Amino acid sequence: MSALSKTFVLFLAVLFVPLVSAGDKSAATDTKVLSTGDGTYWVRYQIEPATIVLNQTFSLQVAIFQDEALTKPARDITLAVDGRMPQHRHGMNTEPVVTQSEPGRFEVKGMLFHMVGRWQLMFDITRDGETVRAQTALDL
């Protein structure tokens, strides 16, 4: 295979196999941790499967904690998760389903990124009528 052919194959692979890298630059298989803007909660999440593929659903395993050491699960909270493309001013075409398995632990199914570009992944945590947000950027 010529050098030009190898370069073309590499170009096609990069173009047609969209992968996600998190805004915090950690590996796709890593569990990621974010804090809410006000520092009230810490969100630990993992994407399943580890690589987000364009137009294919993915899930999130999410745990919400009241401390940075991730030892005190948040209680009496609800969680909403959404993905938005701020540069395009729109969100996902699907509405994810959030299920709580135990205090502070959630599974989010039905996430789907339908366009290549920068996405904002947002975790809205509500307790006693007050909502706070943790968010990160993902590039698809």
How far the N terminus sits from the C terminus, by CA atoms, comes to 30 Å
CATH architecture: Sandwich
**Gyration radius, rounded:** 17 Å
Fourth CATH level, the homologous superfamily: Macroglobulin (MG2) domain
Q: How would you write the strand order of the largest sheet? A: 1-10-9-5-6
Helix content class: 10-25%
Enter the CATH topology name: Immunoglobulin-like
User: How many strand units?
Assistant: 10
How are helices and strands ordered from N to C? HEEEEEEEEEE
Apparent shape: globular
Count of DSSP-assigned helices = 1
**Could you name the ranges where pLDDT drops below 50 across 5 or more consecutive residues?**
4-29
Number of domains: 1
How big a fraction of the residues is strand?
over 45%
* Class computed from helices, strands and strand pairing: mainly beta
Q: How would a crystallographer describe the biggest sheet?
A: 5 strands, antiparallel
Average pLDDT: 84
The level 1 CATH classification is: Mainly Beta
Organism: Acanthopleuribacter pedis
Signal peptide: 1-22
Keywords: Signal
Protein name: FixH family protein
